[in-house]
Design goal:
By secondary structure, the protein is of the alpha+beta class. Helices cover about 30% and strands about 25% of the residues. An eight-stranded mixed barrel has the order 1-2-3-4-7-8-6-5. A hairpin with a 2-residue loop joins β5 and β6.
Amino acid sequence: MSEAAFFDTNASADGLRDRSRRAPKKRPRATFLGVVGEILITLGAVTLLFVAWQLWIGDIIYGAERNAAGQELSEQWAQEYEPPATTPTPSEDGDDAPSTADPVILSEPADGEIFANMYVPRFGDDYVVPIAGGVTRETTLDPIGIGHYPGTAMPGEEGNFAVAAHRTTYGAPFNAIADLHVGDAIVVEVEEGWYTYRFRTLEYVTPSEVEVLLPVPQAPDVPAGGNYITMTSCSPMYSLAERIVGYGLFESFTPRSEGPPTSLTEGV
């Protein structure tokens, strides 16, 4: 082979290598199953994000909104309050003694009408959640927080002041209901003052056991002889199979003229 032929051969080989390097690689063709798989993965990721939002992130945001709304309402009542012309006589038992004032009994609120705040020191010193009439999710429980069962007693009234709230989602006002201890304060604030109840016991019932809402809970045909509070929510967590019910007894009413009761700031 001549020297010229040798160079020609090498040049041809180099050209082939250059063309092979420049040739675009073929992309794998998309298949129907591959596309469906990618869509399902995306939907799964979106679903997980939504669940995380509903169960954790959303609860934190909604809970903060509920507390802020309750605090704003409490501040509004304090600003609008006009003290009486005469100064009330201090209790002979000392400033820490429960008030013996007769409780103010409010009219039953309309569905979705906010009329009170609830404080539970056991749930945190920033816990203050609005209470409104009705227990439907759309009108009261989801957008407001705690709902009052229509037809049950009002705060401080003889009978059973019964309320409901979510244990999960939408701020979960009753998330820690199972952590209540005997004697824990449950304080209901209205424009006229504060009603203090004391927690007594928990009970688990089926959703059909509406006897918990009777004037004397779980005691049919027994006339009201005391003042109770009944707090209901779903149980177990993330389920509608049962209801968890917390009961308490009325202790005292503190008029706004006497200032906030000590039960609001009890250490737990």
